[in-house]
Amino acid sequence: MTLFADLLSTIFERRFRASRPLGRDDRSTGELASALVGATGEVSGLAIAQHILNRFEAMDDAEKRAFFGHLARDMNITPDAVRTALAAYEAEPSKATYRAFVAAAEAPRQEFLRRLNQAPGATGRLVRMRADLLRLGAGDPELEALDLDFRHLFLSWFNRGFLVLRPINWESPAHILDKIIAYEAVHAIDSWDDLRRRLAPADRRCFAFFHPAMPDEPLIFVEVALTSGVPGSIQALLAEDRAPLPSAKADTAVFYSISNCQAGLGGISFGNSLIKQVAADLSAELPSLKTFVTLSPIPGLARWVEETGQTVQSGDPEALRRLAARYLLTAKREDGLPRDPVARFHLGNGAVVHAVHAEADTSDKGRAQSFGTMVNYLYDLDALAQNHERFAATREVAAAREVRALAAASETTAA
Fold first, then answer.
1. Domain end position, chosen among 124, 157, 190
2. Distances (CA, A) of 303 to 108, 121, 342
3. DSSP 333
C-alpha cells in the first residue's frame, strides 16, 4: 500500500505540475497564508503553498522578518479561547471538550506549516526557512516562540523512524561527496584527494542520515577510522603517508568527526542515534572490533582557561592533560551539565571520558580552542543505557580512573 500511495502521489504531482502551471497571484503573503489554512481543495492548496514558498525565498531579510512576525502575531493562539476551552474540559471531560481544547491550544501557524509541507519538495525548503528564522529571530521573544512550533513539527517529521542510514564512500554520487566536503565542520577537508583518503581505504568508513523527503541532502554524518588501539592524534590519524590497516586487523572504531549539515535542524538531535546505529552495524560487519571511541575536540577549554585565570604550561604535555581533565570533569554550567558542548553530547549519550591527549591536534584551530589537547569518549555498547540514566539523574561525569587522577592532580596543583 505504501508503494501504491507513493506512485499515486508521484503521478498526481507530475500531473499537477504539467496541467496547472503556477500563475500570478496578487494577494499579499498574509492573505495567501490565511487562504492556505482555509483551503478545502488539495490542488488549490498546493498552488497557494508553492506561491508562498517561492515568494519567501525571494524575500530579503527585512521581508522575511516581517513574514515571521505575521506568523508569530496573527497566527498565534487566542488566550481567551484556550482558557474557555480548558474550563469546559475541566467541567466536563469528554472527547468533544478535549478536541476543542486541543484545537484552541494549537496555534494556526502549525496547520499552516503542515499545509506548506504538502507541496512537492517543501520539506527541504521549510528546513531552510527555519534556518532563516533561527538567524533572524535570536533574541526576539515572539520569533523564538514561533520557532517552538517549527521545532515541534520537525521533531515529528524527522523522527528516527523516518531516517535512512546510508554509507558514504568513494563511489557515492559526486554531488553527495561535494556536500560532505562542504558540510565537514570538525576537521576541514582540503581537497578531493583529502576526501579520498578519508573514504577510499579499507580502514575508513563514513555514514550519513538522510530523510526520504530530502534524499540528496545529508542531515548529519560521521567519519570513522578503523585502528589497532585507541589513537591520540588527529594528525596521525589523517596523515597523507599513513599505511592503511586491513579492516580485519582492526580492533577499534574511532568516531573522529561528526558534522550536522542543516542549520535549519538545529536542536533536532540525530547524533545519538547515528553513533549507536553505526557502532552496531560495524560490530556486526567486523567482529574483531571490540572498542568504540571518539577522538574529539575540547572546544571550550581555552575560553574557560581565559575566563577563570588558569595557568597554562604550554610546553608541558602532562600539565595540559591535567588541565584538560579538570575542565572536562569539573567545569559546569548553572544547570549542572558540563560546560563543554562536545562533552555534554557524548556524556548524554552514555559515553565515558576515556583518555586525554596533549599535542593531539596541532592545527591552528586545535591550538586556539584547546592548546592542542583532545579526548577519547568510550562507547561501551553494554553500558550506554545505564551511563545515560546516571548522567541524566546526577549530572556526574563518568570517567576512567586515569582521567580522574589527572583532574585531581590538577586541582592539587591549582590549590
1. 157
2. 43, 42, 14
3. -
Mean pLDDT of 369-383: 96
Q: What is the pLDDT of residue 38?
A: 87
Lay out the sheet containing 352-357: strands in order across.
164-167, 204-210, 220-227, 252-260, 291-294, 374-378, 352-357
Helix (H, G, I), strand (E, B) or coil at 165: strand
Q: Say how many domains are in the chain.
A: 3
Co-location of 168 and 182 in the same domain: yes
Q: Phi and psi dihedrals of 158, rounded to 5?
A: -110, 30
341 with 303: CB under 8 angstroms?
no
207 DSSP assignment: E
Same domain, yes or no: 84 and 207:
no
- 58 Cβ contact partners less than 8 Å away, ≥ 6 residues apart: none
Are 200 and 321 contained in the same domain?
no
Decide: helix, strand or coil at residue 302: helix
What is the tens place of the pLDDT at every residue in 13-60? 544 444 456 678 889 999 999 999 988 777 788 999 999 999 999 999
Q: Which of these three, 271, 294, 317, is where a domain ends?
A: 294
Same domain, 309 and 235: no
Instruction: Tell whether 152 and 15 lie within a shared domain.
Output: yes
Taking a C-beta distance cutoff of 8 angstroms, is the pair 154, 78 a contact?
A: no
User: Is residue 368 classed exposed, middle or buried when 0-12, 13-18 and 19+ CB atoms within 10 A define those classes?
Assistant: exposed
Which residue segment(s) compose the domain that 365 sits in?
A: 301-414
Cα–Cα distance, 329 to 395 (Å, whole number): 10
Q: How far apart are the first and last CA of the chain?
A: 69
